[in-house]
Amino acid sequence: MPSPAMRGRVVAESPQARLSAAVQAFLAREQLPDSYRADAQRWFEPLADYLFARHQQQNDPLIAGVQGAQGTGKSTLAALLALLLQQRHGLVVAQLSLDDFYLRRAQRLQLAQDVHPLLATRGVPGTHDTGLAMATLDALCQAGSGQQVPLPRFDKARDDRQPGAQWPLLDGPIDVIILEGWCLGAQAQSGAALAQPINRLEGEWDGSGDWRRYVNQQLAGAYRQLFARLDLLVVLQAPSFDCVYRWRGLQEQKLAALGSGNRVMDSEQLQHFIAHYERLTRHCLATLPALAQRVYHLDEDHRVLAETVQS
After folding, report:
1. 24 lies in a domain?
2. Are 55 and 90 in contact (CB under 8 A)?
3. Alpha-carbon 272 to chain mean position
4. Would you say residue 216 lies in a domain?
5. Is residue 157 part of a domain?
6. Which residue has the higher pLDDT, 21 or 98?
7. Which of 93, 100, 166, 307 has the fewest other C-beta atoms within 10 Å?
8. Which pLDDT tens digit goes with each residue over 131-142?
């Protein structure tokens, strides 16, 4: 029973106290700051509750997309949402990344030879196995009790897909599928928008526009079909493209500190790498917030400033 001095007072409970032990362990394991703990409690726990409510409204598994430019934290958010849905609501959640559906290295090298040299670098539309992605979504949606679904995995250190025998298996039935990716939901650009190079990479390596037109054709075709499978889209909105470059640099520093085995890029290499994605990243920053059901507007320090809600 509260003491007389406590009666009538509202006691503020810390985010650490209100988050479950499993979520706190996740935040510690990911080495996330206290500011992320606060954002998780204020913004992302309600987001998980929203996903649960949407799941309850349909018979088929809910397919939720999480989009954000490189370095925005979309992979972290996807993992946190999966954990919250499992811990708070008892759901079976499949967590997928668009990165796990990259074409095999040999396939991309063949594309580079047949279509354009820039397609050797993974990342842009046209370098993913959209057929495998669609087949995986179908298998997850159709999995019944006692059935296991293999989840594709890509080894970035080897720049190649992991052997199928090493893919994790998820037991059905599945309640929610979370798919995250930097270009998830992106729409094809107009022909006029493709006319001029937007950076040095495009000017020197794609002066004729063949590479960017091929990427755009993929967005208008197979990727459009894949993205149409999403029941809803969540966007982590970076404040600018300059922030994207800086945040991606911080990821490289973290990789170096962890000794992860992935190749760590210096500043010049990073600038060249990011240039492959600049066109579509800017396009997504300008267009996707209007198409998403939930948009989380980030400041330059990765904090959530506000949420935009659309039905």
Report:
1. no
2. no
3. 22
4. yes
5. yes
6. 98
7. 166
8. 999 999 999 999
Taking residues 204-215, report their average pLDDT. 97
CATH number at residue 245: 3.40.50.300
Over the stretch 82-100, which tens digit does the pLDDT of each residue have? Answer: 999 999 999 999 999 999 9
pLDDT in tens, 69-78: 988 999 999 9
| Backbone angles phi and psi of 184, in degrees to 5 | -60, 130
Q: Compare 5 and 281 and report the one with higher pLDDT.
A: 281
Q: Which amino acid is located at 21 in the chain?
A: A
What is the residue whose two structure tokens read 């893919």? 167
d(CA 62, CA 49): 13
Whether residue 7 lies inside any domain: the answer is no
Range of the domain at 144: 34-309
pLDDT, tens digit, 9 for 90 and up, residues 46-59: 999 999 999 999 99
